[in-house]
Amino acid sequence: MKPALPRWAGPLAVKAAVFITVMCCALAALLGVLVHVSVTNQTVGQARGQALSRLTDATQAYEAGDTLLPGAGVDPEGLPGSLRSLAASGLRGTMVSQHQGRPTMWAAGPVAGHRALAVEVDYSQQARTIAGLDNSILWSSGLAIGVTVLVGVFAVTRVTRRLHATARVARRISTGDLDARVDDPLTKDPSRPQDEVAAVAAALDTMASTLQSKLLSEQRFTADVAHELRTPLTGLHAAAELLPPGRPTELVRDRVAALRTLTEDLLEISRLDTGREKLDVGTEELGALARRVVRASGTDTEVRIVRGARVETDRRRLERVLGNLVANAHKHGREPVVLTVDGAVVTVRDHGEGYPRYLVAHGPQRFRTEGGATGHGLGLTIALGQAEVLGARLTFANAVDGGAVATLILPMTEEQ
Questions:
Q1: Is beta strand 102-111 parallel, antiparallel or unpaired with respect to 93-99?
Q2: Three-state DSSP class for 342?
Q3: 379 close to 367: Cβ distance less than 8 angstroms
Q4: What is the pLDDT of residues 256-275, one digit of tens each?
């Protein structure tokens, strides 16, 4: 199973900072190693050359029987064993080791009797030079990494801020705010080179504008059709009232009434789509209002008042919401249907098959019904739209033990 990453590892700026840091560390380590090896080889080479030169002089003096200079001797104390063995075998060599508490460069060669003639050269200065170089490499690398990371994070943060702004606008558009635009500065000046973020922002703004124009066209079309249907429907309704009593007349009147209801629903939806509905706010006792809605529906709906509440709301719109929820519960669910008032929360539950899966996941969609249900799918759409106008929240779910549950959460009055 792939391990889950921590939440802080998600942002692009963090990933960019980690990537830049890793790359800087790798580059600094590579350059540091190259410089260290180059300088060390040069320094060691110079010390080795000096030691071998002194060894040559010491060998000539030893063979001539002269007194050896200080720092030279046969099998001296402190000579590394491996270098002593090398000289005894007839070869010359050099080695750096600690002697009397300080770094020393040894050079040794063979003399008669399988013995080693060796000279020592103080290597302290060269060792300090290499150590100082290593410290300089570490400090300069750390400083370079820090500066590079800061500059890189600053540059990436500028990009991520623009990406976050684009994401916020996209979320606003997804919630229905089609007036939202990114308005990235780079998209306003075509002469300036545009990066990928500007291209995404421009595409999102274009999409929002296109979507908005199409929705406005559909809204105007719906409103125009509904308005044009009202006049002939009024005449058709009047003509149906003049027909003689009988079963055919009842069918005609029933269909005309259904068509008038559909037309009025379309007009109401078109008004809600414009977003210009105004509230007629007043203080209402929620329990009493719920009982009036149930009485007006003419249905056998149980009303339960768990906790009463007074709310600042538009009575007509709230009655429309609750009436549609009750009517939908009786039309598409099964009894018993229960309307419960608990403070500012109103639930309407039936005991039928429950809401379709698409409705629970995405909310009601006009003109869509499933499972052989009748109707036009506008009742819940209108209820949701009117709830938004009221500033309330309407959600749809299915009860664990069966049945559909619609929950309306109203804003409370200040005194509560």
A1: antiparallel
A2: strand
A3: no
A4: 776 776 666 666 666 666 66
